[in-house]
Amino acid sequence: MADVKREIERKYEVAGDGPLPELAGAGAVADVVDRGVVELDAVYYDTADERLGAASLTLRRRSGGADAGWHLKFPVAPGVRDEIRAPLSDTVPGEIAELVRSRVRGAELVPVVRLRSARDVRHLVGADGTLLAEASVDTVDAERLNRAGGTAHWTEIEVELADGADPAVLDAVEERLAEAGVRPSKAPSKVAEALRRTGGSRARSAGRAAEPVTAGDHVLAYLREQREAILARDPGVRRDLPDSVHQMRVATRRLRSAFRSFGSVLDRDATAPVAAELKWLARELGAGRDQEVLAERLSDALDAVPPGEVTGPVRERLGSWAAARHGSTRGRLLGVLDSARYLALLDSLDTLLADPPLRKKAARKPGKVLTRALKKEGDKLARLVTAALELPPGEDRDHALHQARKRAKRARYAAEAAVPALGGSARAPARAAKKLTSLLGEHQDSVLARQTLRELAAVAHAAGESAFTYGVLYEREEQAARRTEEKLPGKWAKARSAFPH
């Protein structure tokens, strides 16, 4: 079974094979304990075109040391990675393979680099003997296993923070190392350094992408950013990390919205099939996400009810409902991410972005093209909001406001996509549409909460339980909906003025 370790470390270049500088007295480090030399042998895996490396992911099979096994590392922040570990085996463990499936898809994972390291380990401990960090001098021999091959040899210092230790320890150690002339490594990992020294990698040989110039450049840059967001969030969804489903769903919506908002740049006939599949994926992601939001809302609302107004096992029933829904939606979602349909969608998206169906206006400067697209979005949003406000309170108005909310999201995403090209003239409508979307989202959440409360009340009544508290919560949700509707005209006026006319 795979487990997870948050790895916080820093790497440093060493000229020659010099010893580790004296670190006792660096910040909270009171003593340095020699732990001997460990021999490590690691083979790093990737696809033939090095897709994992391009995404700053590393996958290795390592023997030797206390943590022998398979390790998959995800970047979290500079110097911070999540390491997924699985026991040593001859082939890539299934739980590891699942986490890179969106990157690898049908390609084979093959050995690309072998690193054999002699690790001279020191424990940096505090005055009470508590482990603060582990510092090591690693003498590395690298062998390229794919393409033309090649070898390299170097020495580096690695300092890894102990679990629960203060990150200030790393700063103090770095300051001491700097005094000794030791400088941070330019490579984020050993395998990156090995690839650099043995002939580079395909992932890095392409260089930095050109700055966007045309309207098409800007739209495509935005689309590629959202595609990467889907791939980056996929492992988090599989690991059930907080907010991962929501962020992946947002990326699918942004892609689909961009296809529709920038129809003057991209041929909609060509993007329509991919957009339809993105809609399917967003719907599958939304089933679990909507339930999470609703469960949290109802739980918070129940917390605000005076104890004297809570009758019957309301909290227990709400908890059971939330747990049951989460389990069923999560199982379905994992099936979606492992499905041929999902992987085909990712392939289709890659194909489209590799050879985009650009229209004539894509070659023009972005100013007029993108501003016109924002004006259209603002006009369409205006028609929906105006029509919704003219309806009397009730189901028809609720539905109309929900449609306006979806259009407000689309307008917001279009404005956000245009910000790099238009600056403040796109940033203002993006902010305004975000605020409007938030207000309309609060209204829709109230609608869904009332529907759920009716269902839970009916189940409770059938079980012979009091439905009183569900009625209290229902009334509060009705009041919340009325308050949002009262705020809507003013909020809409501000949003409308922010869009191009």
Fold topology:
Layout: E1 3-13, E2 31-46, H1 51-54, E3 58-63, E4 69-77, E5 80-86, H2 94-99, H3 101-104, E6 110-125, E7 131-144, E8 150-161, H4 168-179, E9 183-184, H5 190-197, H6 202-205, H7 215-238, H8 244-261, H9 268-303, H10 314-337, H11 340-354, H12 366-389, H13 395-422, H14 424-462, H15 468-498
Helix pairs in contact: 7-8, 7-11, 7-13, 8-9, 8-13, 9-10, 9-11, 12-13, 13-14, 14-15
State the oligomer. single chain
How far is the N terminus from the C terminus?
A: 58 Å
Q: Report the strand count.
A: 9
Q: Name the helicity range.
A: 55-70%
Q: β content, as a range?
A: 15-25%
Q: Which architecture of the largest domain does the CATH hierarchy give at level 2?
A: Alpha solenoid
How many domain units? 2
Low-confidence stretches: 203-207
Domain CHAD: 212-497
Domain CYTH: 5-198
InterPro entries: CHAD_dom, CHAD_dom_sf, CYTH-like_dom_sf, CYTH_domain, PPIase_PpiC
Region (Disordered): 481-501
